[in-house]
Amino acid sequence: MNVILLGPPGAGKGTQAQRLVDTHGMVQLSTGDMLRAAKSSGSEMGNRVAEVMARGELVTDEIVIGLIEEKLTGSDAAGFIFDGFPRTLAQADALGALLDRTGHTLDAVIELQVDDEILVDRIVGRAEQARAAGQPVRADDNAESLKLRLMEYYKKTSPLIGYFHAKGVLQSLDAMGEIDAIAATLSGMVKDAAT
Ligand code: ADP
User: Fold this and answer.
1) Cβ–Cβ under 8 Å, residues 102 and 72
2) What angle do CA 145, 55, 176 make, to 5 degrees?
């Protein structure tokens, strides 16, 4: 059982992926989290991508495909939730090849749909809450980087909606309601895709 969560920054992919981990025992693969962990660990790759991420641009396909390949080949998990990957057509092709090679299937691609104004409010709100609570604020959670993140999404990631539609695996979900309600709908979609 392998599922891709697709959607713009702030759509709630990470939040909903975590719910699927809790309810379906799936393993979340978030390239954003992996890249932030690489940055925190001070590895050479982490340092190399930090500025690109802070600006809101995508890091190279080669780096993220490498990260995913490492996780997929070394795991016997029952199912993966890809969160924030693939983000380009090249990444989508690479994932397809990787799944074939490792004997996995892609069961569903679920697009979380959220209007732009709501995305901006959510991300700016998340940064303000973190700041107020004395927690670290993500380097890319500011108005300027967010503009670039959205632009990168529309230019490079949104073509994947057509790509997966053509493959017959795309489903879309209104992700503007309550977190619990969205989680329940999503859980149903994943269950259906598994049967
Ligand atoms: P969000 O979905 O809120 O933008 P993520 O945590 O998924 O946040 O990603 C943060 C940043 O990490 C991206 O803006 C990009 O720089 C980098 N990144 C994450 N995943 C990928 C990917 N698959 N390809 C290229 N860059 C990525």
Assistant:
1) yes
2) 35
Rounded to the nearest angstrom, the distance between the alpha carbon of 195 and the centre of ligand 1 is: 31
CA–centroid distance, 80 to ligand 1, in Å, is 18
Q: Give the amino acid at 56.
A: G
> DSSP letter string over 72-134?
HHT---S-EEEES---SHHHHHHHHHHHHHTT----EEEEEE--HHHHHHHHHHHHHHHHHTT
- In the structure, what pLDDT confidence band is assigned to residue 165 with cuts at 50, 70 and 90? very high
Q: CA nearest 109: which of 149, 81, 79?
A: 81
The alpha carbon of residue 12 and the mean position of all alpha carbons in its chain are separated, in whole angstroms, by 9
User: Is residue 74's pLDDT more than 80?
Assistant: no
Give the pLDDT score at 102. Answer: 86
Size of the chain in residues:
195
Q: Rounded to two decimals, what is the model's pTM?
A: 0.94
Is the shortest distance between the CB of 19 and ligand 1 below 6 Å? no
